Every structure is written in structure tokens, then in C-alpha cells.
């Protein structure tokens, strides 16, 4: 049994953050979620609010935060390219100033701090699969740079706080992860394809669909987070967390159409600038240092995600149906003389 701790999760109302909060509560901890709801959803944490060990505060991490905690997971940051490019300066502020604020908090209370870093550190990688020792191939002035360079700078800050102040840091480089609690309008490929397939809308492949990604189910990832946070002090990362099974985007589209039985057609749209052509984690370090590897295969994870979105879409459809239709509203009667 782990000792009960008070744990801060930034981005707690987001996709990954909400799963992490649930897991930490189930493990018997007290959890404080900080979120500014930029991409987060209140409904992701609604069920947790009745738990006396859970507290949620609306706060932007680019502003300092002072509450005493035992441990910090920093997940706050929009993760979908569509959303992190909407206000690029805000993305950079969240990544860099947010990281500094949380590192200062960790220093003040002398507590461990975990950073949700990303495979985008490797940019459009020239080495495949990607190992942690690879420094990456990132365009520093491109449209994705606010996220990639923001996260790279955050990693630098984490390692400098460790060198200068002996802070206990844990840096995870997360590869594409999917599952329930993604926003239907998140914009990332798995949620887009599933929602499009379920609605019978065209499946939007960007480019020719030969680019690859390696998709990890959320429960596997959260298990990796917990193991990394609770690892020995000298295990700082960076450490790749992801599922090494690699698929083309076209493979994914075909699989989703098959599994949903959808009549959706595939359409091909322009590939976004600097979209990485391939991505697969080398997880040897995670296996050796954490004894971690993913166990949920893509089909199983996709099925759980499809089930989730089916429910979400039917709840949304019922909500629209129950709104009074124009004709049901008592008309205002105008009397003309
Ligand atoms: P998400 O967009 O669902 O969640 C991010 C959460 O952070 C949201 O609730 C959002 O409202 C909140 N947030 C954003 N800016 C904030 C700010 N300034 N202050 C407070 N809260 C803020 O994304 P996610 O997939 O859950 O990603 C969580 C973290 O994991 C991110 O840091 C992301 O970069 C990292 N990551 C995720 C993936 C993935 O595949 N899901 C891959 C690599 C890295
Ligand atoms: N993509 C796509 N159609 C979509 C959304 C994404 O073809 O509707 C592609 C995107 O161009 C990229 C891959 O799917 O090559 C993964 O995109 P996502 O936004 O999920 O994450 P990324 O790995 O690019 O951050």
C-alpha cells in the first residue's frame, strides 16, 4: 500500500488528467485538480466531485499557485494541434511560465514533480523508432513550434531545477494516446475518425494517410505515469511512454470504419505543415526502469473508445431532442385591428 498523499494534478479536467485523478483517488490519495477549462470538460470530473478527497480549482497555471501539496503532476496544456495552434502565445505561456510556476511550487514544498512532455520533442524524426537520446528535428519557427518548443523549454527547465536545486523530477515523453473522455471536437485523429464514422460523416485523412503514429490506450499510459512518479529518485527520465505498435493513418481509418460498421467515405485533405511523417516509441527504457509496457491492443482500446463516443453522441442527441422545438413554443398572438 502506498502512503496517502495530497497530489496536485494540473489539467485535471482534460482527457489524461481526468483519468489520472480517478486513478489517484482509487489509490487512496487526496487530489487537487487545477484547470482553466481551455480544452477541459467539467463533465470529465463531475463524478469525482462527490468524493471528499477530491477538490477542483479553476486556475491558469501561467499564474503562480501556492497551496501546499506532496506531489505535482503537470499535465495542463492543450494537446491537440488544432487547439494548441488557436492561441499560440497562450500555449507557450502555459508550457514555459506554467512549468516555472509549478517548479517553484515544488521547490517551496520540496516535493516531486512530474512533467507531461511529448513525442513532439522529436519533431519530424530522422531516427526511427525514437529513443530518448535522440535530440529531435523540430522547426523552431513553424506553426507547431509553440507546442514543440514550449515543451522542449519546459524539459530544459525541469532538468535545470534538478541540477540547481536538487529537485526530484520525472519527465515522461508521451506518444499519441486515446480513449474515453476525449472531447468530441478535440481534433485529434482517433476521436475525429470515430465521431465522423458514428455520425456517417466523411472520414478526413490529411495528406495521403501514409504517415504513421503509434497509439496507446489511456489506462496503459496512466499506469506508466504512476510507476514513473513512484520510481527511485535517480530515475528522472526523459522516458518514452507509448505503445510501439505502429499504424498508418489510413490503416486507422479503415479499422474505425470496419469496427463501427459505418457507411462513411474517406476524403483526403491537405497535410498540415510540419506534420511528422512517422512516429514510434522505443520503450526499452520504460521496460527496464519501470517494468512497464502497454497491454491493451489497438482493437480493444478502439472498441472501448467507440462505446464511449456512442453513448456521448446519443446523450447529446437526446439533449437536442428535448429542447423545445420552435413549433412547441406558445406563439405570441398579435391582434390586428
Ligand atoms: P487535453 O487538452 O484534453 O487536456 C489538457 C488540460 O489542460 C485541459 O483540461 C485544459 O483545459 C487544461 N489547460 C490548458 N491550459 C491550461 C492552463 N494554462 N492552466 C490550467 N489548465 C490548462 O489534453 P490531454 O491529451 O489530456 O493532454 C494532457 C497533457 O499530456 C498535455 O500536457 C499534453 O501536452 C500531454 N500529452 C498528451 C498526449 C496525448 O496523446 N494525449 C501526447 C503527448 C503529450
Ligand atoms: N489526422 C488526419 N485526420 C484528422 C486528424 C488528424 O489524417 O482528422 C492526421 C494528422 O495529420 C497526423 C495524424 O493524423 O498525421 C495524428 O494527428 P493528431 O492530431 O492526432 O496528433 P499529432 O500526432 O499530429 O500530434
| Low-pLDDT residue spans | 326-337
Bound molecules: nicotinamide-adenine-dinucleotide, uridine-5'-diphosphate
Structural class call reads: alpha/beta
CATH superfamily: NAD(P)-binding Rossmann-like Domain
When the domains are counted, the total is 1
**CATH domain fold name:** Rossmann fold
Q: Count all strands and give the number.
A: 13
The top-level CATH class is Alpha Beta
Series of H and E elements: EHEHEEHHEHEEHEEEHEEHEHH
Beta-strand residue fraction:
15-25%
Shape: globular
What does the average pLDDT come to? Answer: 95
Helicity level = 25-40%
The number of distinct helices, counting runs of at least 4 residues, comes to: 10
Please provide a written account of the structure.
This protein is an alpha/beta fold and 337 residues long. It has one domain (6-317): NAD(P)-binding Rossmann-like Domain (Rossmann fold, 3-Layer(aba) Sandwich), CATH 3.40.50.720. 39% of the residues lie in helices and 16% in strands. It contains ten helices and 13 strands. It has helices at 15-26, 42-46, 81-84, 88-109, 145-165, 189-199, 218-229, 249-260, 284-290, 298-322, and strands spanning 6-10, 30-35, 54-58, 71-74, 112-118, 169-174, 177-178, 203-206, 212-214, 216-217, 239-241, 246-248, 266-269. Strands 3-2-1-4-5-6-11 form a seven-stranded parallel sheet, with helices on both faces. The protein has a two-stranded parallel ribbon with strand order 7-10. Strands 8-13 form a two-stranded parallel sheet. The longest helix is centred in the C-terminal third of the chain and has 25 residues, at 298-322. The chain is globular. 42% of the residues are buried.
